[in-house]
Amino acid sequence: MKDEESGNRLGSYLRARRELVTPAQAGLPPGGNRRVPGLRREEVALLAGISPDYYLRLERGRDRNPSPQVLESLARVLQLDDIERTYLLGLAAARPRAPRRKRPEHVPARVHELLAHLQIPAFVEGRAFDVLASNSMAVALSRRLRPGQNRLRSLLLDPEEQAFHQDWAKATADFVAALRTSIGDDIDNPRFVELVGELALSSQRFRTLWARQDVRSLDGGRTTVHHPVVGELRLHRDKLPVDDVILVVYYPDKDSDSDEKLRLLAALSHTESAGTAPGSPAGDPPPETP
Questions:
Q1: How far apart are CA 141 and CA 265, in angstroms?
Q2: Which end of the chain is less enclosed by CB atoms within 10 A, N or C?
Q3: What are the counts of helices (DSSP H) followed by strands (DSSP E) for the chain?
Q4: Residue 179 backbone phi and psi in degrees, to 5
Q5: 3-state class of 241 per DSSP?
Q6: How many CB atoms lie within 10 A of CB 90?
Q7: What is the pLDDT of residues 214-261, one digit of tens each?
Q8: Where are the alpha helices (H) located in 167-287, listed in sequence order?
Q9: C-beta of residue 141 within 8 angstroms of C-beta of residue 250
Q10: Which contiguous run of DSSP H or E holds residue 17?
């Protein structure tokens, strides 16, 4: 995260986004001998109604106080959606700040109780997609949903998790973009620095997606996964904020084929765990920290 997250995040974002817009998408003739994958700087400036010199200063970090009107014009030219536009405006508004003391992410005791009572896959994740707590159905759905796992690391590096997702390419793109959104201006957070650094070294897919600087909200929706025992499951996903963490639940349409398969998975999980001694990592809350 050392380039865009250091001194010139605005310029780095503008550069990454203009490289993703083709001349045809912007209504320009393609021309010949183009040495850039997307729009040239002068083309962005022309379409946004600003001078090429001023746009160059923005990209190179020489001017860090563009007006909202300029940013709105650039968002239009770069074809940003509402989330990306908000992110762009936030980059321009960001100011140097004193380092904040980081509080450890904490799962309230009542959420551990809720997890134990839910009969559908449910778990708690932190801002960096760390699994902080989960119930037995979540672990039955995927062993990568045990506490201590990181969902993005598993998705990028674990072959079983890659096979688990029907559309792995879309899942990775969504997760990486959601991570950048989650980071926001909290760029000195040690957990984010550690995770991004690890994945940048170990995953070409992550490096490619991170360079795009996509931002996205990964909230509710539908997903299709391939479970190694019960087969294809089509599930809804909801994310519910609880204090500083997120409760994630997966559930099928009632009386659907996936509903039957999930009930079968629950029965198999109950049978397998019937002789397990108390204290499994999925079911019991961790000791309270003084």
A1: 8
A2: C
A3: 13, 5
A4: -65, -45
A5: strand
A6: 14
A7: 999 878 789 999 999 999 999 999 999 998 899 999 999 999 999 999
A8: 168-183, 190-202, 204-212, 257-273
A9: yes
A10: helix 9-18
